[in-house]
């Protein structure tokens, strides 16, 4: 009889322990069910914060077509990238890309390839003396776009490639001339495979006279015999002023092609434009 009672007590005790464990596990499960959405939200926000910034249109289906068009344009530099002779930067940067500044120069002057870049002159064998003039011309088209910049270390040429809706593509090449060391060149090409005229906008950072003491600003019209103008004559802006560094004072003259605010590219065609800027020291 005692043995039977003992077995019953053991069974009741085991049932109580089991019921208590089931109740405790049920509470834990319900707590996890309640907390899981909140924890998942925090985790997703953390993962998003670690990703590169994305634009408003990045999830639009057409955006993937833009990426495809852009990568096709960049294929010409892929071999150089594989051989570590070039660097490509998408906007925004891809996770595996280096944030190096695309810079072109020839020992006399240098320019960083961004819209608000100034001209850097030589100071103590290094191009670190800023000259507050902005030579870069920015080219834009009013459609959704995807852009990348590239720098070819071997040839000393920087590239900007922008692909837009309807396969319209704008490329710019920037380089400091080697045989004519005072010349900075920007070659622009716009390809319009669409069936309508493409209106392309040009802009350059405005020159601030107050930032350069005793500067003189003017303009000059040069004919075809002077600079090989395409339309008989072209107008150039001139900037002349003194530059003072730690050791001496010298004058710098800048002659830059005056750009239109916009131009049109005919359907099924392409248009090229070369922007010249001369920087002379005396």
From TrEMBL:
It is a single-pass type I membrane protein. It is found in: Membrane. It holds the Pfam family DUF2152. The lineage of its organism: Eukaryota, Metazoa, Ecdysozoa, Arthropoda, Hexapoda. Keywords: Glycoprotein, Membrane, Signal, Transmembrane, Transmembrane helix. This is Uncharacterized protein. InterPro entries: K2013-like. It comes from Cuerna arida. It comes from the Eukaryota. One of its GO terms (cellular component) is membrane. The chain crosses the membrane at residues 28-48. Its main location: membrane.
């Amino acid at each position: 009889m005692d043995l039977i009672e003992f077995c019953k007590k053991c069974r009741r005790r085991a049932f109580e322990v089991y019921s208590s464990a089931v109740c405790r596990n049920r509470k834990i499960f319900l707590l996890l069910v309640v907390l899981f959405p909140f924890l998942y939200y925090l985790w997703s926000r953390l993962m998003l914060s670690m990703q590169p910034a994305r634009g408003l249109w990045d999830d639009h289906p057409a955006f993937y077509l833009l990426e495809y068009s852009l990568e096709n344009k960049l294929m010409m530099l892929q071999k150089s990238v594989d051989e570590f002779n070039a660097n490509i930067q998408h906007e925004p940067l891809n996770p595996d890309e280096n944030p190096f500044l695309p810079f072109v120069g020839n020992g006399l002057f240098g320019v960083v390839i961004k819209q608000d870049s100034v001209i850097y002159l030589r100071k103590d064998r290094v191009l670190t003396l800023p000259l507050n003039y902005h030579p870069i011309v920015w080219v834009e088209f009013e459609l959704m776009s995807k852009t990348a910049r590239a720098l070819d270390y071997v040839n000393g040429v920087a590239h900007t490639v922008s692909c837009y809706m309807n396969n319209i593509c704008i490329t710019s090449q920037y380089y400091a001339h080697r045989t004519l060391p005072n010349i900075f060149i920007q070659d622009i090409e716009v390809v319009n495979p669409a069936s309508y005229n493409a209106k392309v906008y040009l802009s350059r950072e405005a020159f601030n006279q107050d930032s350069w003491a005793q500067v003189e600003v003017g303009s000059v019209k040069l004919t075809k015999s002077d600079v090989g103008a395409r339309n008989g004559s072209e107008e150039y802006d001139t900037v002349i002023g003194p530059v003072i560094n730690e050791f001496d004072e010298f004058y710098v003259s800048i002659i830059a092609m005056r750009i239109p605010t916009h131009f049109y590219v005919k359907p099924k065609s392409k248009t090229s434009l070369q922007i010249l800027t001369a920087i002379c020291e005396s």
